């Protein structure tokens, strides 16, 4: 059962993409708030996403803030004999710096951001669990403005000793070019396909309206001569 809308979205996107990536295997995604970095059971692998984008909402003072440094920890295991895999996931929380409460708040994410993060997760799964060439990892800080310096004292991940990796300028430029090419390759709607008064749908509507008005006028005149 999903505990939040974001959790449901994570599972929905993960299951859909894994059905395409590995249709012969059965994978599950489990949210585990107690997951620890580098504490792995035998046969398990780790993937760490350090620069996800998320919005936080303080449950005490209702303050909201955007962060480009959301940390997500994944532990992964594949039982090749049973063709079953498991992913445990933890999204690290942040403290509200406005009210100073000790409450750790969860982040919410847009579906498009979750899809990119799941793509990275599947890339890591291919490499670590299947021994394949996973492909290209996306850097989720290239195509959005900087949200300001990261405040480690309010970050749960920093308090547990996870150091934030900062991508080089070369990697950021490469990712920006990749995003631009991807955007340019998307199919666009043909010009004039929107709803305007000259479109076929509107022409049919006005023609039908004119016929109706003509019919009513003819009926009125005919009844006047009777």
TrEMBL record:
Coiled coil: none annotated. It is a single-pass membrane protein. GO terms for molecular function: olfactory receptor binding; zinc ion binding. The chain crosses the membrane at residues 198-218. Residues 51-161 form the 3CxxC-type domain. Pfam families: Zn_ribbon_3CxxC. The keyword Glycoprotein does not apply. It is found in: Membrane. Keywords: Membrane, Metal-binding, Transmembrane, Transmembrane helix, Zinc, Zinc-finger. The keyword Transmembrane helix applies. It comes from the Eukaryota. Its main location: membrane. One of its GO terms (cellular component) is membrane. InterPro entries: R-trans_p, ZAR1/RTP1-5-like_Znf-3CxxC. One of its GO terms (biological process) is protein targeting to membrane. This is Receptor transporter protein 2. It comes from Saimiri boliviensis boliviensis (Bolivian squirrel monkey).
């Amino acid at each position: 059962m999903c505990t939040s809308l974001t959790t449901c979205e994570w599972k929905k996107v993960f299951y859909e993409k894994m059905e395409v990536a590995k249709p012969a295997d059965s994978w599950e995604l489990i949210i585990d708030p107690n997951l620890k970095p580098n504490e792995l059971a035998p046969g398990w692998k780790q993937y760490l996403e350090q620069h996800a984008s998320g919005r936080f909402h303080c449950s005490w003072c209702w303050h909201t803030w955007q962060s480009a440094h959301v940390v997500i920890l994944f532990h992964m295991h594949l039982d090749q004999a049973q063709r079953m895999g498991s992913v445990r996931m933890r999204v690290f929380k942040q403290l509200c710096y406005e009210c100073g409460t000790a409450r750790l708040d969860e982040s919410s994410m847009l579906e498009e951001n979750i899809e990119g993060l799941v793509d990275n997760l599947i890339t890591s799964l291919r490499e670590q669990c299947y021994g394949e060439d996973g492909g290209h990892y996306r850097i989720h800080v290239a195509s959005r403005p900087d949200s300001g310096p990261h405040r480690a004292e309010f970050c749960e991940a920093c308090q547990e000793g996870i150091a934030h990796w900062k991508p080089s300028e070369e990697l950021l430029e490469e990712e920006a070019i990749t995003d631009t090419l991807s955007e340019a390759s998307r199919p666009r709607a043909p010009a004039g396909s929107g709803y305007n008064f000259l479109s076929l749908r509107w022409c049919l509507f006005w023609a039908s309206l004119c016929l109706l008005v003509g019919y009513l006028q003819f009926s009125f005149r005919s009844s006047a001569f009777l």
